[in-house]
């Protein structure tokens, strides 16, 4: 927000107005207002006042406020304290990485003798359409496909980042991130940011508070939902969300409302899936098979995940909205003339799934029965947060910052453990990176993941993920200090299903 | 002096649990304190001919006539009798409305064949379009089960089976139950719940429900059409059936934890209806036990862990399908192993008195700590003492159900 203030309020409001006018729901909104103006509630004599009053009563004002809130939330820019830092090298690294992935996609294609994109045969289309609700029965062999990259490959890339500004020699660049010129919060700053947690306030998710507290939270939560004002909902999440209100609370905070436009758009994505056979489809199918389908917490959602992920992969809005601008290729549909209508941006969403990508969506399946609602909440979550966890960027919420935060906190909290890792030359980040990259999804039980993500939304920050990773390590410190090999360390941390997120975070942040 | 145990089951989960407690394994002829036995071994041990007399320091994992609850026909008989008796007493629990029991309508309408054939036909005629399920009374694991949607099919089946010269099979009795054709589906698939209930005494009734349990999913989408009537992968949730299907996944084994089911239901259906569902489940467990209470020989040496099969319909009403006296202790997945290990551990923790030595003279009131992941469903002794403090202390959350009795 700082940079917005710099240029002054008029500039910002102009930008917001412009962008809201371009929003697909704008037309409907104007129609509503027009209807209101012609109603008896608004009088010519006292036009301004009566219109405002009528808008407030109809909930249009709230709707507008929510739009501004969502705009600000998704247009937050860098807030670097040291302006001398050149962040372009992050961008360059991402471009390089994108190129490498694209190359590996292409070589996988030629290896398997397939193309990136082609039109489906009508027979295939029919089968797919018929089995849309049970895609696990859609006959497709993906045994030869393999994930393009896994978290550990991505970590390699990150560990090789070299800042042009940094000339420190005694740091082993492939071991940690300390040499990168990024500022992360220290413990007092985190305590301030996560005020409710560090003050030890009652938060839902700690077992010590009984049903009375939950009943109270539900009562307040219902009032919050009735108000339908996003910033209040976000504030509400800070003290934990009852299970029965979570789906609506998240939709509200993320601005993932569904109306005609959204459902038509989703339908168009489905149609795109029916008409075009993309190489990326198989990759995401493979990913679902490797993760959710084999997971006793998510297998029941296999079919809905197929639907949602296939649509997601061809959602061009994502490419438009990701601030870090992923790379893409222009490909010509197989066997077609190279005209513009036969050319496709590939991947259409700019997203190439890594091993475990499905885990960004899987926990959300617990909240919705309707794939449409699931889709938009997942998409909003991705656009606001998850894309930063699998792309190289210098954003204060990006994966590099999260890694660095993890390291700093570990060093500070538990120097002994840090030294232990140094001595056995194992980088602690290696052990926890998959947790960070998947925001703990698939590693913690669903309810715990959802509680953690409540906090991500509540404080509009991914930092809590790094914090949790540190605390889990510290929690297992005694066992970790006794082992010296990577395998043994991994086995100490393999099963974290008994972790209770909220109490642990509270313990760490409590003064 | 060490505690000794004996088992005729080749299940590591039993042996490891006992050994972890420092108990020593002995043979059936030796002096054992705890016997974890199959039902057949139990039967012969309890039979008059065996002449075996247990001492105060010996306990065993079955009641002599557990079949009163675990045989499909006897369970139904006992429940029917229980309802009638309550009704005669004028008990509010047996209240009726619309010719149905308001609070005790928790098993699908069921008849024993061939004995109740005429009654069945009468019921069948009331709604000839419904589907029925035929189950042999004495078998398990889905064996011998089939679905029927026409009376003529049943007639044909009975003619056919008579021809086969297999006297023991021909004599086999069946139950025929109204098929729950509107089960709650998740991901389009049918499932049932397997819950564990420990009974340490029937008179007074002392029962505990295990917090963990799982849902067993079919591998094929649910489809109530006639064409799929014979497809057992659609209709029967038994793991022993499903694992033969091509879609079976041995990593998760089609098992979703009850906690996760609850999370999904609370998130999508709301808190109140979910809580009501789980309360109704506890309610039906208690009343199924009350129904057999007068007929089961409440031997002080016995305890038993039952596996309850429950189906939830799409209106979130739970239905009792059957009660197993020897629920499978085989682990199909890694998490299954953890669950069953914990189950056995927690059972032993409840049945052994604080002294650490089995003793049938003990009042069988474990401490809250000893209950671990079991929750007290009912302890009539505590309720009788009507000491609200004690019942609170032991966490009897359902004691309030008995306020009218
Ligand atoms: N009345 C019914 N309605 C719907 N499904 C049923 C019904 N009875 C049984 N089933 C299905 O068949 C399975 C096996 O039935 P059950 O009575 O448990 O016999 P078994 O002893 O063979 O396990 C159940 O787990 C359930 O999936
Ligand atoms: Mg059964």
TrEMBL record, chain A:
<dbReference type="InterPro" id="IPR042507">
    <property type="entry name" value="TBC1D19"/>
</dbReference>
<dbReference type="InterPro" id="IPR000195">
    <property type="entry name" value="Rab-GAP-TBC_dom"/>
</dbReference>
<dbReference type="Pfam" id="PF00566">
    <property type="entry name" value="RabGAP-TBC"/>
</dbReference>
<dbReference type="InterPro" id="IPR035969">
    <property type="entry name" value="Rab-GAP_TBC_sf"/>
</dbReference>
<protein>
    <submittedName>
        <fullName>TBC1 domain family member 19</fullName>
    </submittedName>
</protein>
<feature type="domain" description="Rab-GAP TBC">
    <location>
        <begin position="240"/>
        <end position="460"/>
    </location>
</feature>
UniProtKB/TrEMBL annotation, chain B:
<keyword id="KW-0436">Ligase</keyword>
<keyword id="KW-0966">Cell projection</keyword>
<keyword id="KW-0493">Microtubule</keyword>
<keyword id="KW-0206">Cytoskeleton</keyword>
<keyword id="KW-0963">Cytoplasm</keyword>
<comment type="similarity">
    <text>Belongs to the tubulin polyglutamylase family.</text>
</comment>
<dbReference type="Pfam" id="PF03133">
    <property type="entry name" value="TTL"/>
</dbReference>
<keyword id="KW-0969">Cilium</keyword>
<keyword id="KW-0067">ATP-binding</keyword>
<protein>
    <submittedName>
        <fullName>Probable tubulin polyglutamylase TTLL1</fullName>
    </submittedName>
</protein>
<keyword id="KW-0547">Nucleotide-binding</keyword>
<dbReference type="InterPro" id="IPR004344">
    <property type="entry name" value="TTL/TTLL_fam"/>
</dbReference>
């Amino acid at each position: 927000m700082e940079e917005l203030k710099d240029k002054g309020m008029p500039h910002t409001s102009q930008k917001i107005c412009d962008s809201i006018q371009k929003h697909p729901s704008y037309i409907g909104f104007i129609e509503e207002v027009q209807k209101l103006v012609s109603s008896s509630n608004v009088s010519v004599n006292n036009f301004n006042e009566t219109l405002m009053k009528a808008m407030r009563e109809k909930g249009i004002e709230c709707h507008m406020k929510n739009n501004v809130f969502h705009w600000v939330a998704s247009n937050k820019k860098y807030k670097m304290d040291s302006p001398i830092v050149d962040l372009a090298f992050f961008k360059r690294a991402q471009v390089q990485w994108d190129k490498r992935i694209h190359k590996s996609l292409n070589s996988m294609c030629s290896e398997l003798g397939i193309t990136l994109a082609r039109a489906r045969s009508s027979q295939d289309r029919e089968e797919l359409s018929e089995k849309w609700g049970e895609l696990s029965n859609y006959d497709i062999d993906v045994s030869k496909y393999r994930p393009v990259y896994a978290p550990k490959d991505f970590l390699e890339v990150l560990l090789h980042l070299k800042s042009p500004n940094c000339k420190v020699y005694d740091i082993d660049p492939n071991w940690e991130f300390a040499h990168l010129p990024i500022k992360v919060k220290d413990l007092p700053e985190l305590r301030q940011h996560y005020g409710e947690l560090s003050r030890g306030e009652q938060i839902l998710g700690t077992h010590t508070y009984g049903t009375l507290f939950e009943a109270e939270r539900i009562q307040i939560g219902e009032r919050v939902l009735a108000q339908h004002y996003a910033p209040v909902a976000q504030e509400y999440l800070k003290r934990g969300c009852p299970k029965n209100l979570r789906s609506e609370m998240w939709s509200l905070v993320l601005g993932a409302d569904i109306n005609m436009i959204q459902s038509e758009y989703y339908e168009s994505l489905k149609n795109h899936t029916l008409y075009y056979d993309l190489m990326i489809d198989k990759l995401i199918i493979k990913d679902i098979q490797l993760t959710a389908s084999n997971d006793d917490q998510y297998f029941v959602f296999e079919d809905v995940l197929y639907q949602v992920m296939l649509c997601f992969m061809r959602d061009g809005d994502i490419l438009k909205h990701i601030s870090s601008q992923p790379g893409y290729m222009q490909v010509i549909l197989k066997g077609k003339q190279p005209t513009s209508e036969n050319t496709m941006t590939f991947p259409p969403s700019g997203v190439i799934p890594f091993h475990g990508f499905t885990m960004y969506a899987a926990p959300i399946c617990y909240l919705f029965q309707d794939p449409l609602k699931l889709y938009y909440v997942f998409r909003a979550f991705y656009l606001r947060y998850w894309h930063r966890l699998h792309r190289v960027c210098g954003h204060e919420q990006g994966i590099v910052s999260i890694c660095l935060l993890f390291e700093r906190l570990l060093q500070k909290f538990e120097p002994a453990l840090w030294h232990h890792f140094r001595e056995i030359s194992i980088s602690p980040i290696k052990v926890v990176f998959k947790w960070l990259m998947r925001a703990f999804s698939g590693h913690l039980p669903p309810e715990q993941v959802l509680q953690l993500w409540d906090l991500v939304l509540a404080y509009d920050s991914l930092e809590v993920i790094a914090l949790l990773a540190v605390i889990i390590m510290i929690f297992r410190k005694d066992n970790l200090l006794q082992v010296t090999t990577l395998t043994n360390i991994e086995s100490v941390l393999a099963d974290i299903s008994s972790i209770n997120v909220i109490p642990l975070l509270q313990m760490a942040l409590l003064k | 002096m060490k505690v000794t145990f004996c088992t005729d089951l080749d299940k590591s989960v039993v042996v490891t649990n006992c050994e972890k407690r420092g108990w020593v394994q002995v043979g059936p002829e030796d002096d054992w304190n705890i016997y974890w036995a199959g039902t057949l071994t139990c039967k012969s041990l309890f039979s008059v001919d065996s002449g075996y007399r247990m001492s105060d320091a010996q306990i065993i994992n079955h009641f002599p006539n557990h079949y009163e609850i675990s045989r499909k026909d006897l369970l139904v008989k006992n429940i029917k009798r229980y309802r009638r008796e309550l009704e005669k007493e004028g008990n509010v629990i047996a209240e009726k409305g619309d010719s149905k029991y308001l609070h005790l309508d928790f098993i699908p309408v069921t008849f024993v064949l061939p004995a109740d054939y005429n009654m069945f036909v009468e019921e069948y005629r009331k709604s000839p379009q419904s589907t029925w399920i035929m189950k042999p009374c004495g078998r398990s694991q889905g064996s011998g089960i089939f679905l029927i949607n026409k009376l003529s099919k049943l007639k044909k089946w009975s003619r056919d089976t008579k021809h086969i010269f297999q006297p023991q099979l021909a004599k086999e009795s069946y139950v025929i139950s109204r098929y729950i054709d509107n089960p709650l589906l998740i991901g389009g698939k049918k499932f049932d719940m397997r819950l564990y209930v420990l009974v340490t005494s029937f008179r007074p009734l002392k029962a505990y429900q295990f917090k963990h349990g799982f849902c067993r999913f079919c591998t094929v989408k649910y489809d109530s059409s006639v064409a799929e009537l014979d497809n057992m992968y659609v209709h029967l949730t038994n793991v022993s059936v499903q694992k033969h299907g091509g879609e079976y996944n041995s990593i998760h084994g089609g098992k979703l934890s009850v906690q996760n089911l609850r999370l999904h239901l609370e998130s999508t259906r709301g808190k109140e209806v979910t809580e009501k569902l789980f309360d109704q489940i506890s309610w039906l467990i208690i009343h199924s036990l009350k129904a057999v209470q007068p007929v089961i020989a409440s031997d002080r040496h016995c305890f038993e862990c039952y596996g309850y099969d429950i189906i939830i319909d799409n209106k979130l009403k739970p239905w009792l399908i059957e009660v197993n006296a020897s629920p499978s202790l085989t682990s199909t997945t890694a998490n299954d192993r953890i669950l069953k290990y914990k189950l056995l551990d927690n059972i032993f923790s409840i049945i052994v008195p604080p002294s650490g030595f089995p003793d049938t003279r003990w009042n069988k009131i474990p401490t809250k700590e000893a209950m671990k992941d079991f929750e007290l469903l009912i302890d009539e002794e505590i309720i009788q003492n009507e000491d609200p403090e004690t019942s609170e202390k032991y966490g009897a959350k359902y004691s309030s159900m008995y306020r009218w009795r």
